[in-house]
Amino acid sequence: MARNVTYSVSPRINPRDKDATPKYYGHVQASGDISLREMAERIQQTCTVHKSDVFAVLVALEDTITDALKGGEIVRLGDLGTFQIGISSKGALNEEDYDESLIKQARINFRPGSALSGILTNLTFQRVKVRTSKADKEAEEGGTDEGV
Q1: Are 68 and 62 in contact (CB under 8 A)?
Q2: In which region does residue 107 sit, left (phi positive, over 0), alpha (psi from -120 to 50) or beta (all else)?
Q3: In this structure, is residue 89 part of a structural domain?
Q4: Please, are residues 29 and 23 in contact by the beta-carbon 8 Å criterion?
Q5: How many of the other CB atoms lie within 10 Å of CB of 54?
Q6: Residue 20 placed within a domain
Q7: pLDDT tens digit string along 58-101?
Q8: Which secondary structure element, helix H or strand E, spans residue 135, and what is its range?
Q9: Is 93 helix (H, G, I), strand (E, B) or coil?
Q10: Which of these, 49, 38, 115, 44, lies nearest to 81 by C-alpha position?
């Protein structure tokens, strides 16, 4: 099955020069999303494990990753990649003056592993129209199931 990353093109104004002619840039148009339940369904189709068991493992994985990150651990998911907490902070003139109040925010850093990094080299792209709203997407797909 051929898979394409869909993208659309739209004008962008240079924020430093609002009088300049806009330039056109491509940006990815998501083709949907996938939930834990849908992942469990897809995984079930490729192995001998039942959907409910896969779902239970995925939920436990989510909980385990969350707890590990809260505890300051680095989470390594093999060739998928690594999660780790990172922070942004203000500087202090010396080590003794630095305290927790200088930390501005925390974030979750993700570094993709070889399995994810490898997919970027062989992507194919398909241009689509700009989607401006859910109604536009439904019209493009032939309407909704309401009233059926």
Answers
A1: no
A2: beta
A3: no
A4: no
A5: 20
A6: no
A7: 999 999 999 999 999 999 999 999 999 999 999 999 999 999 99
A8: helix 134-140
A9: coil
A10: 115
Q: Number of folded domains in the chain?
A: 1
Q: Is 147 a member of any domain? A: no
CA distance 13 to 99: 41
Do 2 and 21 meet the contact criterion of CB atoms below 8 Å apart? no
Contacts 24+ apart (CB under 8 A), 85-93: 85/109
Tokens standing for 146?
């309401």
Residue with tokens 């990353």: 5
Q: 3-class SS at 98?
A: coil
Question: What is the reported pTM?
Answer: 0.72
Q: The domain containing residue 45 runs over which residues? A: 34-73
Q: Is residue 50 domain-resident?
A: yes
